[in-house]
UniProtKB/TrEMBL annotation:
Residues 1-205 form the Peptidase S1 domain. Gene3D superfamilies: Trypsin-like serine proteases (2.40.10.10). Keywords: Disulfide bond, Hydrolase, Membrane, Protease, Serine protease, Transmembrane, Transmembrane helix. PANTHER family: ACROSIN-RELATED (PTHR24252), HYALIN (PTHR24252:SF7). One of its GO terms (molecular function) is serine-type endopeptidase activity. The gene is Prss55. This is PRS55 protease. It comes from Leptocoma aspasia. InterPro entries: Peptidase_S1_PA (IPR009003), Peptidase_S1_PA_chymotrypsin (IPR043504), Peptidase_S1A (IPR001314), Trypsin_dom (IPR001254), TRYPSIN_HIS (IPR018114). It comes from the Eukaryota.
């Protein structure tokens, strides 16, 4: 994210940096000790041989705990043109040992957009303009993990701004204008709880 607020260590412990040749290419989310949720458009059809998943830190330019992927699963109906079903799973070769700085995100059990009141996105940089987002800027990428507040908006308003929005995509507005991180999560809590759920994946070109 180019113009967000720096994230403190352990504040977003589920966020990972997916890297190629040691450089960040996409964000992702820990959903279990062995599985990472991310965007399908970040990859070709096969798993790159040099891919690693860095966990447990906010600055990918510093040494982080790295995990090698075992396999990659793209959504069977992923469309590279429309980015519909832009979802992928990475199976790690070894499990992540959870700690205060490495833990999984919860997956949602309801689809009611009105329930999600406090939403955030976090990431390092962008591989392209995000179709999930209505407003974005092209600020320089940050080396430190950053966050920005989000607000979900109804699909009717989305279609006014993005007529080609495909089914299954949602839109948000920013309270800041960041550059978003492809593959990273949109996370929300509901009511006054502090439990966080991943309700979306940042999808970009």
């Amino acid at each position: 994210i180019g113009t967000g607020t720096d994230v403190e260590p352990g504040e977003f412990p589920w966020l990972v940096s997916i890297q190629s040749h040691g450089k960040h290419i996409c964000g992702g989310t820990i959903i279990s000790a062995l599985w990472i949720l991310t965007a399908a458009h970040c990859f070709a059809d096969e798993l790159p041989p040099d891919l690693t998943v860095a966990v447990g830190g906010v600055d990918p330019s510093l040494p982080l705990e790295e995990h090698n992927p075992d396999s990659l699963i793209l959504h069977e109906e992923f469309n590279r043109t429309s980015l519909q079903n832009d979802i992928a799973l990475i199976l790690l070769s070894n499990p992540i040992e959870f700690s205060m700085e490495k833990s999984p995100i919860c997956l949602p059990f309801v689809c009611d957009m009105d329930r999600w009141q406090h939403c955030w996105a976090a990431g390092w940089e962008s591989t392209g303009a995000a179709l999930l987002i209505l407003l974005f800027s092209f600020a320089a990428a940050s080396h430190v993990l950053q966050k920005t507040r989000m607000k979900l908006i109804c699909r009717e308003k989305c279609l006014e701004q993005i007529p080609h929005l495909v089914g299954g995509m949602i839109s948000v507005t920013f309270l800041l204008l960041p550059q978003v991180d492809s593959g990273g999560p949109l996370v929300c809590s509901y009511w006054d709880t502090m439990k966080w759920f991943q309700v979306g994946i940042i999808s970009g070109g």
